[in-house]
Amino acid sequence: MLEPRLQAVLEYIWAESHADIGSDHAYLPLHLLASGRVQRCIAVEKNLEPLERARYNAVRFEMPLETRHGDGLRALEPFEVSSLSLCGMGAKTIKGLLERDPEVLETVDSVVAQPNDFAEPLRRWAKSNGFWLERENLVPGFWDYTVLHLHRKSGADLAYSGVPLELGFAFGPHLLRRRDPRLKMALERTKTRLERVIQHANPRVQRDLRQVQDALEWLKR
Do the domain assignments include residue 169? Predict the structure, then answer.
């Protein structure tokens, strides 16, 4: 049984060939193969201990999982996979991995990312690099995890249509548009926390509070 954040990632993936970057014990790619959502799957891990655990699990569950010892997309060849997942890392780390090997990325059509912190850098990166924000979700866990489905398309990303751009980058255009209840609760908590320290806060905190207030006002529309 996958934990909720990885189950949410799984539900965004359908591909003939897929690579899970930073796969840890390979629970996600094994479930992708077992469910028939992918025909071929490569688990990439730069640390040897989880890589060995991934190999053990592939044998244990009799799955044709390919495992590779490597650092991010550098373990892949161009045109080898059409789909990627990157989970459980910081958004800036994920962004760096996507930027670092353009010759591989340019042959990828779909990216599912689950950052462990604010997703804003990934939304900004996607909009500037030919990926539309196809879907997004907030998933409960140790904290609320953001899951983003990025799909390569040309033209302006329609996800941001009708949503203030900076609010969309910060909090998610799909989440804002559908008035996601989990987002609203998160914004309310953040507003309360920032209001407690605003008198002694620096200008960045004041800007953050105004942005949260603007998002809450937009949700009331």
Answer: no
Same-domain pairing of 103 and 188: no
Q: How far apart are CA 1 and CA 209, in angstroms?
A: 38
Compute CA distances 34 → 29, 60, 98, 221, whole Å.
9, 13, 27, 43
Q: Do 40 and 175 contact (CB within 8 A), yes or no?
A: no
Average pLDDT over every residue of 123-150 = 96
- The pLDDT tens digits of the residues spanning 75-122 come to 999 999 999 999 999 999 999 999 999 999 999 999 999 999 999 999
- 174 within domain boundaries: no
Rounded to 10 deg, the angle between the 91-100 and 120-128 helix axes is: 30
Q: What is the pLDDT of residues 34-82, one digit of tens each?
A: 999 999 999 999 999 999 999 999 999 999 999 999 999 999 999 999 9
> SS3 for 49?
helix
Same domain, 89 and 49: yes
Structural domain of residue 212, as residue ranges? 181-219
Question: How many domains is the chain partitioned into structurally?
Answer: 2
Mark whether 27 and 78 lie in a shared domain.
yes
Cα 139-108-40 angle, rounded to 5 deg: 80
Q: Which amino acid is at 28?
A: L
- Residue 171 domain-assigned? no
